[in-house]
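Per your request, structure below.
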């Protein structure tokens, strides 16, 4: 019987980004939700600490090394994050002298200027001069609705990738039993059939070690503005749920090519999270 006991990683990975885009992320304000509050984080050091803890737990000394800051500086920021309830600390079971830091909050988005003026693609609808979707075609209407939501959020300077990823995860948990097969090729064929029937695009298996998928006609991003980076957070959530169940362990999805990054398709790499974190 199919069962998926894992949780979304909360870490949305894009390899399809430019160096300039990555540098400009430093100006973003990141939003995190804990049990008791929602907080905006603009400190570069705090954002780096939270980024590291999204991938896995780290010791305090690992954080110091990876951040490249003085121990006293990291100590102040860690104290602030602990007090805010965004992270927690516990003693390393293998070394009582070490403290292990864990993320106890969820990223929910960013306030950013990076995509506010991205060039909008031409409307490819040829059905009607008045309607940007095919009348009577729910998939066409849904694609248009997604595009309007994403482009309006971008224009306002709001990035909601983490929320879309978690939404995709919940939907993926429902879809996973419908497409599951113990054979990878057959499972991807089932995924392709489901995607095609429901107007979500087409899915093909382009590699098995690591698993890689190519999506043509991606409903989530094909019509989005060209931003220079990937935009398939919802798809990543769906794929995370499906493949963590298939592999029976948490996975990490990396989008290496995307319509929004300027490609003519989307491509995803699926890896076992434990292997990535070694």
């Amino acid at each position: 019987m199919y069962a998926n006991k894992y949780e979304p990683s909360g870490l949305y990975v894009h390899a399809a980004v430019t160096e300039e885009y990555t540098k400009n992320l430093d100006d973003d304000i990141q939003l995190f939700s804990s049990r008791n509050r929602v907080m905006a984080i603009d400190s570069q050091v705090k954002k780096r600490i939270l980024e590291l803890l999204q991938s896995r737990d780290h010791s305090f000394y690992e954080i110091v090394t990876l951040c490249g800051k003085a121990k006293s500086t990291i100590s102040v920021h860690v104290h602030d994050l602990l007090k805010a309830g965004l992270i927690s600390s516990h003693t390393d079971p293998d070394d009582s002298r070490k403290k292990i830091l864990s993320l106890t909050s969820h990223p929910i988005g960013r306030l950013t200027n990076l995509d506010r003026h991205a060039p909008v693609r031409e409307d490819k609808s040829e059905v009607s001069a008045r309607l940007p979707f095919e009348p009577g075609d729910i998939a066409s209407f849904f694609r248009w609705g997604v595009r309007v939501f994403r482009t309006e959020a971008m224009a306002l300077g709001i990035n909601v990738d983490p929320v879309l990823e978690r939404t995709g995860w919940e939907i993926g948990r429902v879809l996973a039993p419908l497409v599951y097969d113990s054979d990878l090729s057959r499972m991807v064929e089932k995924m392709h059939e489901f995607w095609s029937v429901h107007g979500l695009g087409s899915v093909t298996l382009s590699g098995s070690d690591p698993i890689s998928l190519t999506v043509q006609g991606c409903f989530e991003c094909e019509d989005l503005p060209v931003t220079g980076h990937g935009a398939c957070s919802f798809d990543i959530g769906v794929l995370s749920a499906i493949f963590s169940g298939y592999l029976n362990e948490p996975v990490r999805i990396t989008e290496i090519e995307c319509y929004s990054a300027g490609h003519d398709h989307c491509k995803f790499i699926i890896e076992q999270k434990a292997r990535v974190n070694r």
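The chain has two domains: 1-25+112-278, 29-108.

Regards,
D.
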